[in-house]
């Protein structure tokens, strides 16, 4: 799983560099990873600065999974039978690597913060609406997706899944709230940049 996470974060970083954004570092740890990428000032930010690097992570995993599958087929390697709940794929290193990349890629396309899908959705909406409206819409869509998924999982798992699902919903709600609270500082920064640009000749520099 850690190798799949590394593939994911390196894909973010490489594409961000290609876009001309600074990548401060790429970190992988026991519960996930992160690529710390420069966020351009609001006045020069474009939707492509967000959705292109964000999409690179899931695509990197899915392409890696597809290539692994083709190599497995070409080499004639026998993967364990794929059965729901079976631990066989977890014990086979190749199968575990293949499934980790596919699962990580698909999960990160879910349109809910903090997944890449939430950022992709917000960026695409921001190409037509204001950044604030796009963020509110993306958080609303993500909330609906999370509630629907939690209801389905709770129905499948029964009462024993109530606590972990509740914690997951609270955590995802906190990420959505963090995106909303970041709007104020971002807009203040944009106003400051516009003020400086309009008065640069009159400032005593």
Helix percentage range: 55-70%
Q: Give Rg in angstroms.
A: 20 Å
* Sequence stretches where pLDDT stays below 50 over 5 or more residues: none
Number-wise, the strands total: 2
What kind of oligomer do you see? single chain
Form type: globular
Largest sheet: 2 strands, antiparallel
N to C succession of SSEs: HEEHHHHHHH
Proportion of beta-strand residues: 5-15%
Walk me through the topology.
Layout: H1 2-18, E1 23-29, E2 32-37, H2 47-75, H3 88-91, H4 93-107, H5 116-126, H6 131-157, H7 162-181, H8 183-199
Antiparallel strand pairs: 1-2
Helix pairs in contact: 1-2, 1-4, 2-4, 2-5, 5-6, 6-7
Features:
205 residues; 2 strands; 6% strand; globular
Structure, explained:
This protein has eight helices and two strands. It has 205 residues and is mostly helical. α2 packs antiparallel against α4 and α2 crosses α5.
Task: Give a concise summary.
The protein is built from 8 helices and 2 strands; from the N terminus they run H-E-E-H-H-H-H-H-H-H. With 205 residues, the chain is mainly alpha-helical. The N and C termini lie far apart (53 Å).
């Amino acid at each position: 799983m850690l190798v799949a996470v590394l593939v994911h974060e390196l894909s973010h970083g490489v594409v961000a560099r290609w876009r001309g954004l600074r990548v401060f570092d790429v970190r992988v740890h026991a519960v996930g990873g992160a690529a710390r990428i420069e966020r351009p000032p609001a006045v020069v930010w474009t939707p492509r600065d967000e959705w292109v690097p964000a999409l690179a992570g899931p695509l990197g995993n899915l392409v890696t999974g597809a290539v692994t599958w083709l190599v497995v087929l070409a080499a004639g390697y026998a993967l364990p039978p794929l059965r729901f709940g079976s631990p066989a794929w977890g014990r086979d290193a190749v199968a575990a690597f293949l499934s980790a990349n596919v699962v990580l890629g698909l999960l990160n396309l879910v349109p809910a913060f903090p997944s890449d899908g939430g950022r992709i959705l917000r960026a695409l909406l921001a190409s037509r609406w204001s950044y604030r409206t796009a963020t509110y819409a993306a958080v609303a869509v993500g909330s609906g997706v999370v509630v629907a998924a939690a209801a389905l999982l709770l129905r499948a798992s029964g009462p024993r899944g109530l606590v972990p699902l509740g914690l997951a919903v609270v955590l995802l709600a906190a990420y959505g709230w963090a995106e909303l609270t970041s709007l104020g500082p971002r807009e203040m920064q944009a106003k400051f940049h516009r003020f400086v640009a309009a008065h640069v000749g009159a400032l005593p520099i």
